[in-house]
Amino acid sequence: MERRLLRLLCQSPAARVEMADSLRPYRWRDLVHRVIYQIVSGAPKLPVEQIRTLLPTRLTNAGFPDFPWEDLFKPHTCSIQEAEILLRELQSLCGN
Predict the structure, then answer these.
(1) Which has fewest Cβ within 10 Å: 52, 54, 61, 67?
(2) What is the value of pTM for the model shown?
(3) Which residues contact 71 (CB under 8 A, 6 or more apart)?
């Protein structure tokens, strides 16, 4: 579920802007997912192409050189509304 949210955030500047407040308090279950969130949320209005260029270097610098980031840019089918539902489900599972 976290990956689905990240895929949307990587591919949609609108989702990054709209979901920034909702995701800020969320405790990511996977450390690399938290790092990816921090990278993309730190550049809310960057186009997808720039995020795609920026992400591998930032992940390597953060200690995740072998993370398969390419799948974050495969087509997603998650809308912002569906992502908000996913976030609520994740929060209830994690006790956030």
Answers:
(1) 61
(2) 0.83
(3) 3, 7
